[in-house]
Write a structure and sequence with these properties.
alpha+beta, three-stranded antiparallel β-sheet, binds protoporphyrin IX containing FE, signal, oxidoreductase activity, acting on paired donors, with incorporation or reduction of molecular oxygen, iron, monooxygenase activity
């Protein structure tokens, strides 16, 4: 075989750090430059201390998503492993393949189950808006959307509603998020060091929740309807496994949903025309219902324009830039051969923000998603694709649309800082938390 002699083109940068810094500072530029210089299909690099190939474009996405388990398995960079896996990892994956199957099977995150959570979500979101935004003339949307998202996750994944407990978790997750944005140096005093500690606190809290729920399930108390209880009642996982799984869900589902909500509010705040279109769609839904009646699954299916707005927000600012795989065999692609053990990175930006597939990629234009014919295959991939595609997609859609419904009915808004800087290339966030001027709308 010609393994090792026919590697994809590319460079490996400095010893040890490789090209890490260039990548972290601006992944989009890093990748676009190298696609031009080396190959638009695949090139090799070296960062986070790993030998990496980056696989690009719709054909790259297709190849990756179609060869799961044959050539590829899931992989987390070492810094993420330190943060998110327990101290005695049984695996270097956030999710073992069997776990993913479990989540996808009749599971809690499937539409059949989610149908029953719409009204509850609507009611929590209404309460949160009342407590945190109503009566204010100005508010920071990003901290709000984070605490809202975690409140929902606490209710539906963990079955906890106590606001102090939720606030404590929000605080710890904020520290973890700061760490993700920093260099992964586990040295006292660094943001990453604090993040590793916060992740330990979160895991301990989750272990307590599992123990409490278990006592409730075994005792006579009426068990709540939540994912944690479902897993306990299932009876085939140890408490540690349940804790680990809940951690994985919170990590995967928390900042992604909050980021999407935040950027929807940003883009809509910049575009009164988009706001008015969303509003008229949402008012039509409300008018078909009794006053005070909570949203249902069917109502959410009618939010077609609002969903186009969400899709376009995730195209311009993807909440997940991309993920890693590990090659479990040597594999050949685009005329090159990559050895077993190398890490493979794919990123949504090589298609979603590529003018070849989306004209004027920086322009926010929800009408791209209203044309009816859909996007060319493997070009729009905010949730990934194939067997590893995000299992939280429907849950995320429900939470975000229910949030938008309530926001436009209650408020109009515009940005306090139209030129606010966006930080963090791997996980984008507005520098000042997206302050907006709020104007109440009386229906
Ligand atoms: C807008 C919100 C979200 C976006 C954009 C998003 C995106 C993604 C992406 C790109 C992946 C990687 C797929 C791959 O590697 O091929 C992923 C995986 C995953 N997501 Fe999401 N996600 C979102 C929300 C959620 C939520 C709410 C949950 C939990 C309820 C969740 C749970 C997961 C899990 C468990 C995985 C790992 C699946 C695996 O490794 O097979 N995600 N998500």
């Amino acid at each position: 075989s010609n393994v090792g002699t026919n590697l994809p083109p590319g460079g490996s940068g400095w010893p040890v750090v490789g090209e890490t810094l260039d990548f972290v500072v601006n992944p989009e530029k890093f990748i676009t430059d190298r696609m031009k210089k080396h190959s638009p299909d695949i090139f090799r690099t070296n960062f986070f201390g790993e030998k990496i190939v980056i696989i690009c474009g719709p054909n790259g996405h297709k190849f990756l998503f179609s060869n799961e388990d044959k050539h590829f398995t899931a992989y987390l960079p070492q810094a993420m492993q330190k943060l998110f896996l327990s101290s005695q990892p049984k695996t270097d994956k956030l999710y073992r393949d069997s776990d993913v199957k479990l989540l996808r099977s009749p599971g809690f995150l499937k539409p059949e189950a989610l149908v029953n959570y719409v009204a509850g979500m609507d009611s929590i979101i209404q309460k949160q808006l009342k407590t945190h935004l109503e009566g204010k003339t100005e508010a920071k949307i990003h901290p709000f959307s984070r605490s809202l998202t975690l409140t929902l996750a606490c209710r539906f994944f963990l079955g906890i509603e106590n606001p102090e407990r939720v606030a404590k978790l929000v605080g710890q997750f904020d520290i973890v998020t700061d760490g993700i944005h920093s260099l992964p140096l586990n040295v006292p005093g660094t943001a990453f060091y604090h993040a590793v500690k916060a992740a330990v606190v979160i895991r301990k809290e989750l272990a307590d929740v599992v123990a409490e729920k278990k006592a409730r399930v075994l005792g006579s108390g009426a068990p709540t309807q939540d994912l944690c209880t479902t897993m306990i009642v299932g009876g085939y996982m140890s408490d540690e496994e349940i804790t680990e799984k809940l951690m994985g869900l919170l990590v995967a589902g928390y900042s992604t949903v909050a980021t999407t909500m935040t950027f929807v509010i940003k883009f809509v705040g910049e575009r009164p025309d988009v706001y008015h279109k969303i509003l008229s769609e949402q008012l039509e839904i409300s008018e078909s219902k009794k006053p005070e009646e909570l949203l249902s699954w069917n109502d959410v299916q009618k939010m077609k324009y609002a969903w186009a707005v969400v899709c376009e927000a995730m195209r311009v600012v993807p909440p997940v830039l991309g993920t890693f795989r590990e090659a479990i065999t040597d594999f050949s692609y685009a005329g090159y051969t990559v050895p077993k053990g190398w890490k493979v990175f794919w990123t949504v930006n090589t298609t979603q923000r590529n003018p070849e597939y989306f004209q004027e990629p920086n322009k926010f234009d929800p009408s791209r998603f209203m044309k009816g014919e859909g996007m060319p295959l493997y070009t729009y991939v905010p949730f990934g694709g194939g067997p590893r595609m995000c299992p939280g997609k429907e849950y995320a859609r429900l939470a975000i649309l229910t949030f938008i419904h309530n926001m436009v009915k209650k408020f109009k808004w515009e940005l306090v800082e139209p030129n606010e800087k966006i930080l963090g290339s791997m996980m984008p966030l507005p520098e000042k938390g997206l302050p907006v001027h709020l104007h109440p709308r009386y229906v």
